[in-house]
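Throughout our pipeline, every protein is held as a single compact record rather than as scattered files. The record that follows is passed on verbatim for readers who wish to inspect the format:
___
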Amino acid sequence: MNNALIPYSSKNILPFWQLAIALHLDKLPQKQDVKDWYDIITTDSGWPKELRYDLSRLLADIHEQENLENLCMRLALSEADTLVWLNQVIAFVFKAEQAELLNSKYAILPNQYGEFKLKTELVKDEGIPEGLKDVLLLLGEDWKKELLYLEMNCQLERSYNIRNISERISGIITEQQHPNLREATYLLISYIPNTINTKKNLPKDILNKRNQIWEFAKALDRNVPEKQQLSNWISSLWDTCDEWILKTLIQDIANCKQVCVLQVKIEQTTELETVEWLSRFINFLKEHKKASLYSEQAIFPNQQGILNKKADLLFDNDIPEELKNTLEKFGSDCRNKLLHRKTSYGENAEKYGQIGEYWARRLYEEYLEFTILAVDDSGFDLRCNKESEELKVEVKLELLAAQLSASQ
C-alpha cells in the first residue's frame, strides 16, 4: 500500500478513475474495486490522506509535464490519443465546476507550440490561417504562444479571428519601421484567396488583382514566395500591404534608372518587352487609383532608355524620326524629352496637331534661336534670328527632307 493511490472524487468516481488510470496504471485499484476503496478511506479516518488521489493531484501531475510532448511520453500514447485524453480531463474539470484551478494554479492547456499554459494566458483561435500567423511572426509578434492548441476543446474568455490578425498586420505595416517589412509583405501577397465554394461577397476582379500584384513583385524580386491558396480571408486583408508593396516596387524600378538595367532585373529579352512590362505595371496602378504613388518617381522611359518622372516627359504624337534626327543634329536632344513610343499610357498626354510648329517654338528657339513657321502641309518657312544664311538653308533642307519622308 506504500505506492497505492485511491481515486477520490465525491461525484463521478468511475469516470475519474478512467482518467487517473492513464497516469498511474500500477497504483490504482481495479475498476470493480474503486467504489469500495473510496468508501473505506472516506469512512475510516485511520487511512493516510496521501492515499487520496483527487482532481488537484491529477492536474498537478499533468502540470509537471510542462508540454504536450512530455505528456505523450508519460502516457505512452500518440499525440492524437493524448489530446483526446486531455480534452476528457478538461471536460471533467468543467463538469466538476473546478475551472478556477485552470485559471491560476495548474497550467495544463497547450498553446500552439504544445507548451502548457494557464487558461487565463490563452486565446481561442477562431480559424486564423497558419500563413497569416507566419506573416505576423516575421513582423515580430508570435501569436502561437498565446493561441490555444487547435485540437483542444476549452471555453476561453478571449478569441482572435481573421479580422483581428488582419488589423494587427496592417497596423505594423503602417508604422513602416520593422526590418522584415519586405519579407512579410512578400509572404502576404503570395497568399491568393480561395474563392471556390465561398459565400463571401467578392470584390470585383479580386483574383485578377491579387495575381497581378504577385506577378509584378515576382518579376522584380525572385525572393517572392510561390503563390499559395488562402481559405479564410477578408478583402481588406491586403489593403495596407498593397499600398506599401506597390510603393516599394515603384522605388525599385526608379532605382534602376535605365531601361536596360530594369531589363536585366526582370529577366526580359529585349528593351521592347521591358517597356511593355512597365506599361502594364503603370496601367495597373492607374486602374486601381494608385497613380499618386509614382507622381514623384522616375519610372517613365524616354526614347533614350532613361527613366524619368512623368511630368518631365512629353507625349510623342507620331513625330517623324527624321525630324528628331534633324533636331538632334542641330543640338536639340529631343528624344530625351519624349516618352518612349512603345508605351501605352499616354491617353492623357498633350496632343499636338502641328508637329513642326510645336517643335519649332519649343526647341529651335531654345537651341538655335530660329523661329520656324508651318506654312502649309508641304514644308516650313524659317525666320532666322542669327546672321547665318548657310545654317538657315541647311536647317530648312533637313526639315523638308523630314517632312517629305514622313508624308510618304
Summary: Residues 158 and 175 are 26 Å apart (CA to CA).
